[in-house]
Design a protein that fits this description.
Layout: E1 21-22, E2 27-29, E3 34-37, E4 44-45, E5 56-60, E6 67-73, E7 86-93, E8 100-104, E9 111-115, E10 124-133, E11 136-140, E12 144-147, E13 158-164, E14 170-175
Antiparallel strand pairs: 1-4, 2-3, 5-6, 6-9, 7-8, 7-10, 10-11, 10-12, 13-14
Amino acid sequence: PDVIDGNTFTTTVVDLNPWVEYEFRVVATNKIGGGEPSLPSEKVRTEEAVPEIPPSEVSGGGGSRSELVITWDPIPEELQNGEGFGYVVAFRPFGTTTWIQTVVTSPDTPRYVFRNESILPFSPYEVKVGVYNNKGEGPFSSATTVFSAEEEPTIAPSGVSATSLSSSVIEVSWTAIPWKMSSGRLLGYEVSSF
């Protein structure tokens, strides 16, 4: 409260964050103004509560063959609302209905890597990350699409030929490799001379 009656010696402070330590000072005021603040009270921790805020910036991708890498921004300690804080990572292949869930027990961890030989390269997955602590499960982030790891090209371009155009220029040409988008994004070619 902003101002408390001069005959009142207790008050209730509301809208505090759960599981956070607070100190309080009291300042006496009159018509002229405020006096010096009191010494701080002992630290008092609010009670635990279920987490209310899911991780932000849920994303991912990359990694090695047969991996699905999921990343997020960790929740700061003052928003974890209690002990035993961790994350629930849920994902499923795009177009399916059953979520695969796993628990990440470290509150500072910003990622989870799912490894499985059955993961096809560059496959879309629906991903969301939730929160929990000793009081229960909090909300999940909104679902986002993350692609599994890409696969490196397994064949080389064919039909490579070179034609001299001048004393300092050679034109190199080749036949494009057959590429499936299901293997990843073909970023380009490297041309080297030796």
